[in-house]
Amino acid sequence: MTTKASSRTPDESLFAEMGQFIEELTASGALLATGGLEPGGLRLTSVDGEITVTDGPFTEAKEAVVGFALIEARSQEEAVEHARRFRRIVGDGESEIRQVFSQ
């Protein structure tokens, strides 16, 4: 699950709710990792064997992915429920769910 930047300023309530959410997901074994992402980053582009490295940021700040949670869900529906709970905690904004393929 990823989340994009929002206009909500974190406060003690947000930190408390998010802490509880993270504890519950960790205890259930669903949460594998979380982290914040720098808004800039680097972009590598390959064209005809030539690789170009460009410093970010690349999109408007409101479109930048700023955090992620790697979860293990038994179904897409379970992943959506975790993401819904996350969105209820952080408020307005946008998140994405992406499946990680493994061998």
Automatic annotation (TrEMBL):
Residues 6-101 form the YCII-related domain. PANTHER family: BLL7171 PROTEIN-RELATED. Belongs to the YciI family. This is YCII-related domain-containing protein. It comes from Streptomyces alboflavus.
